[in-house]
Fold this protein.
Amino acid sequence: MNPRSTGTHTAGEEVGTITPDTLPGMKQGMHGPLISPYCWESFDYGDILHVAADSRLTGDPILGENERLRFHATRFDDQGCVLDAYDRICSEIADPYVHFRLPQGFLELPQFILSIVGAPGSGKSNYLSALINSLQHSLFQNYGMVLKDADPAGNAPLNDMKNCLFGGGSIEQAALLKTQLDGRMYLRIRRNGRVVSYPRPFVYSLVRSKTHQGMCNLIFYDNAGEHFEPGIDITTSPGSLHTAAAAALFFLVDPTTLPAFRQRLQFHPDPQLKHPGRIDQQDVLLAEMEIRIRKTLRLSVNDEIRKPLAIILGKSDIWMTLVDKSRFKNPIRDGIFDRDAVMNNSNLVRELLLSVAPTIVANAESLSKQVMYFPASAFGHSPTRLPSGSLAPNPLRIRPHLVEIPVIWTLSQQIQGAFVEKTADKPVTILPPAAPIRRSVVPLPEGEYRRAPEGTYPMPPLPPFQQQETSSILPGSTG
Ligand SMILES: Nc1nc2c(ncn2[C@@H]2O[C@H](COP(=O)(O)OP(=O)(O)OP(=O)(O)O)[C@@H](O)[C@H]2O)c(=O)[nH]1
Ligand SMILES: [Mg+2]
């Protein structure tokens, strides 16, 4: 099917006129294989709208008088391209529910929503910014893949955050603001007669650089943590419901609010550990996420939620001081993705979480059968407090640590043969790649995982970890 011709339409339907009664977004019962990246409703190819190209067709019943009209295609040229009422070729397509433009590659590539969930202040915005930066470097250097902006204008707020952290500016510039419920990370969307705030989708295309072959689009959101808390009305505030449409869930655990961690880390200089009495309910957030997913997907308590769940124990620059770092391994070495290293790290993080927050482990493992635990740090060091009161990392010392591994693990599950992999029984398994790739093995840049500065403070010991042979890349190791 020509991606620009979007299915069947009633013959003789008038082009370019949409009355309130026939508003596509008000149409009931749309369903199909496509998912709106804006409101996560499903629809079919034939429901897709086109954006009028001629400036005389300005004014859209949902988006207002300044936007080009959205319409169902009924007229095509001899190449199958959609024409508007003034015979101009229309190459842009729009979401049938909310009328926003759909990102590049929407019809050609699989769309993977990767939902980042976490309590307010858990580090989601900083993690997402570091994640995009690290993914772009790591995927290219290790696998010859390019992570490209599929919607540069829409992605601007996330790119701005990334530039604040990695643009080499001052410490003041590197302080990311708390995500506001109605701020720049949200879009005001008219749905069913109401204007509701939805998180803005950030869309990136993954492309093999040698063959230019697109593999998939990755879609992220940067929610305010309050959206995931129990008590919020999901009818008027549905911003967390991308979790139900997600290909994978990433739950970011904040160690600085877990009482047992705080006790063990009481001599650590990170200012977050000095915040008085923050109530921790991260296990409750996990339970709440499970309830919302079940409600949205109409699953009973006995139905399985078939989504991989990555539990990311963030701010590892802080808690790594409690463990034997040399036992952690880098799952990416010499362009090979080592699943055993992922499993090794997962067991270590799970063991640690079990000792400090067992209810997080319990709730995670009741939500999904595919749970993997990951260590990560967006900064690689503790932020400092500015005179304004906010916390910021030193841009010159930012060394994200293993932030991209959860996404690479997810992709390795979703796309057969995406990566060259290593497993225990077969030293190197080269799964059939979707297209031939010539991997040039480029070492990680010097200092990519450089050691975070370490405090020399007394630390109440944890039960000793069992020593085993490793090839660790974590701070302080030489492996
Ligand atoms: N030590 C350390 N602190 C971090 C790290 N990442 C984020 N932080 C701190 O965590 C705090 C919260 O970070 P944000 O990214 O704003 O958290 P958030 O989850 O987006 O918060 P909301 O927008 O309120 O939901 C900030 O003070 C950051 O400086 C990290 O890797 N290490
Ligand atoms: Mg935030």
